[in-house]
Each structure stands twice: as C-alpha cells, then as structure tokens.
Amino acid sequence: MTLSPRGARYPEILSAGLCCYKLGCTSAVQMPRKFRRQSPRVCVAYSMVFHTLCSPVYVVELDWYPDAPGEVVVLTCDTPEEDGISWTSDQSNEVLGSGKTLTIQVKEFGDAGQYTCHKGGKALSHSLLLLHKKEDGFWSTDILKDQKEPKNKTFLKCEAKNYSGHFTCWWLTEIKEDLKFSVKSGRGSSDPRGVTCGAATLSTERIRVDHREYQKYTVECEEGSACPAAEERLPIEVVLDAVHRLKYENYTSSFFIRDIIKPDPPKNLKLKPLKDSRHVEVSWEYPDTWSTPHSYFSLTFSLQIQGKNKRERKDRLLEDKTSAKVTCHKDALIRVQARDRYYSSSWSEWASVSCS
Fold this sequence. Notes:
Blueprint: E1 2-3, H1 11-15, E2 20-23, H2 40-45, H3 47-50, E3 57-63, E4 71-76, E5 86-89, E6 92-98, E7 101-106, E8 113-119, E9 122-135, E10 138-139, E11 157-159, E12 166-173, E13 179-187, E14 191-197, E15 201-209, E16 212-223, E17 236-244, E18 247-255, E19 267-273, E20 279-285, E21 299-306, E22 313-318, E23 323-327, E24 333-340, E25 351-354
C-alpha cells in the first residue's frame, strides 16, 4: 500500500486489501464504503503535537490475532526533492531507510507512530500511523465504557431538551491521559454538513459505576436548518473518533431528535395553603428551555408525594394541568416531572418542594 499526503487519490490504495485512510483529507474522492474519510478535527487536534504542521494522519486497520501477517505500507515524502532523503521514526533512534518512499510492515503498535523524512538535517514532512484493531470480526472498543443503556454496546449517548435541533452527547472513559476526541454529525447523506458539533470537553462530573470512577466527556451539537414542527424523515448520525496514544477507534449513534428528547424539570414549583383545609395547591410552569408554543408542544406531568419514609409514594398523572390539590403531610416531599405529551419521550429529572 502506498501512502502520500494526497494518498486517497492513488488508485492502488483503493484496491488494496488494507483500509488505510487519511484523517483530515479534504480532496473530493469517491471511495468504496470500506474506505471511510475521518474528521478534519482529528488532524487539527494533532497540530499542537507537530507545532507548525498538521501532519497527514493515517489509520491502518488490522486483523488482530497471534501471528497475523500485518500489512505492508509505503510512505511517500511530501517534497519535490528526489535525492538525499532519509527516514526516522519516533519509535526508533535508527535511520529506517532512504529515498522518497519508505516501505514498512505494520503488525503491532510498535510499528505505528510518527514517521519523518529528512534531508540535510531538515524535516521535510511527517506521517502519523494509528492502528484500528479488529478482533474476531469486531472493531475494538477499549477506549470508551459500555453504558449498557438502553441496550448493550451503548458507548455514546445523546439528549435534547427540546425540538430546536440542539442536542448534547456524552461518553465515559477510565483513561485519563493521551486522549483525543473529535465528533462529526449529519442527517443523511444528502446533507452531511447540516449538523455541526463543537469540541469535546471534559466534565467536572465524575461517574462511579461498580466501584470504578470514570471521566465524562460532552459535546454540544446543533442542526442549523432544524424545523421543530416538521416531521423527521432521516435520522441524525453522530460519529465519534477516539484516539488513545496510537490506538484509533470510532463510535456511532443514530437517532431522531424525537427519540432523545428529555425536557428540563418544571420550574417555579410552589405550594399554596388552602383555607380551612388540610390540602394545598401545588403549581408549576413549563421549563424555559421547552419548545413553544406550548399549545402545540405540550407536556404531560407526573406528580408524586413522597412520605417521610421514602418508600411511601403516591403518584398522579396530569395531562393538561400545571397545578393540583394534594394533601401535604409534614416532612413529605412533593415532586413533579415532565415529558412530551404526544411522543413518549424520557421523563425529566424531578423538581421538588418540601411540605415542611
């Protein structure tokens, strides 16, 4: 396999048995389905490593099993120079070869890393090789934690507070160093740029699962041309590129906005005592973040009275009201949550007020 800074243009790459593709390639090339183009942001993420140059970043997909033969990769120096070129790697102190091209056998992580071609002590170009492992027919998923909800192999979760087209995705990992993430999203192949995602950020929240602590990363995405009242015909697909040291993995999540709706809790939850009665009137309002008009984007509310002993609960479903009369015993807790009335979305978190 031959690689160059414009490697995707070379027909020998497209016909090779190995899928090797450049992260950040911007050339408009029709590739077979197995040759997936990756996010430009991954390349940008590495610019701080190379300081002055966003080097070509290639992902080599390998079948991972004992005595696997690996893949032959040919790197090409991005220079008009023809003579006096030598090659080095950040994995070795030795000169690996000479000439405009370098042929290497990629079998394990020791064969990955940054390769640099030089002439006269000056670096001409860099190539970074990352490995994507396939074991027993499945791509590796070592970097992220499987959250197992709503089903197994759920690594990437997304939620929307309304139908505006804005949504948040998050994922968990135990790894604390040498991590880079990039997220891209689109709705169908007809408009792959219709959804934009920002940079992944590390949350201050730490998640404990089975006595183990995980870091939480989040990203904000938005569909620029979203029409809240329109019916969705094509799902949104979110693709997360994850790099840990020299290991590359990707994760995807596909959904309609209506399927990831989770409203914010009702606001202004208040109690008003009623004269000559043991009852009180509890009232609340739609959350500020919910879609308008509320006559069209209606919510259903669930009201719960939680006794001093938290196991004692009384629940009531309220479809078209934002108030109710209830008996409020001392030390009891009144809680209200919301969900989309016409499409069974997730319930919001609880808003609560004490009867004390």
